[in-house]
Prior knowledge:
six-stranded mixed sheet; about 20% strand; globular; eight-stranded mixed sheet; alpha/beta; 2 domains; Rossmann fold
Amino acid sequence: MKTFQKTLIAAAAVVLSTAALAQTQAKLKVGLMLPYTGTYAALGNAIENGFRLYVAEQGGKLAGRELEFFKVDDESAPPKATDNVNKLVKRDHVDVLIGSVHSGVAMAMAKVAKDTNTLLIVPNGGADAITGPMCAPNIFRSSFSNWQPGFAMGEVAAKKGHKTAVTITWKYAAGDESVAGFKEAFEKGGGKIVKQLTLPFPNEEFQVLLTEIAAAKPDAVYTFFAGASAVKFVKDYAAAGLKKNIPLYGPGFITDGTLEAQGESAEGLFTTLHYADSLNTKRDNEFRLSYAKTYKLQPDVYAVQGYDAAQMLAIGLKAVNGDVSKKAEFAAALEKAKIDSPRGPFMISKAHNPVQDFYLRQVSNKENKMIGIAVKGLADPARGCKM
Ligand code: BEZ
């Protein structure tokens, strides 16, 4: 090779490595796509609080990079979700997407993330498809799949000896898949679902359906609602006189972040979730204290999921020295990491969804008290994931 060619190659290498260095030293652009209005607004805020708390604990930087936030209120509206996520990806050129709460919105984000090879960490939206046919090397979840807490509660309800159940939920992925998880375990344990009641998201006109439940007289009711609508449903169920005759079960979303508003109507309810208020571990106590001091609020499962999304981002970034273009190395680091979550340590599955314990909780004095482990180390079956 001639000296001139060698000099050219060396110069090009310097330009490239300087560009890479400049990129890893620039601020990391984080796109937060969450609901800040509507029935899930409190969930979106708790996720952002948790995310920012972890970053603050690291001195405001992850893997040496400062963060710059770009925010979109997705309104829990799937029809607007593709346009919204494209604002973050194509207009703001974010390095990583964090979102969202609603399964339909999370699926739209996963599609765009997959098509554009953008990193995505889902801090709530449980759509089973994200751990199934939509799974991808650049997509991770710090929360759960809808199937998981439903399945855990199906086992609990069957073990309690209930033989019949009515389900009631919104007609969209989260409700349908939560009920399907419950049904799978409940029927395996000898139970039968006698009626599946639904209403469109985010409708809260529960009265007619509550009358149907009273007429069906099942042994138990399983429900999925969350946020402000979970408050209304639990109150309406008690006010209709059903609570004292037909036990109400659900994933922990029906009582997480809602207990102050639900008051007496939630006392005694059993739920299953990957978090509880009284874990009383050193890790969780420190997290809860730090969260309460910072936000003058008690944390809930959504805050934990936001906090862990930031932890997961930090683990991946550290492995690639802040260079998000190294997607394979980023994923490899997360696949072998044990995430030190306030919920208890967990690892992610091959499909990038947490494998975690599901606690059985009971509401007592406005707390979701942990009374045992419903299912240990539960992994979503990742049906249809090819990765
Ligand atoms: C969902 O849409 O996946 C969801 C929303 C709120 C709580 C849990 C799941």
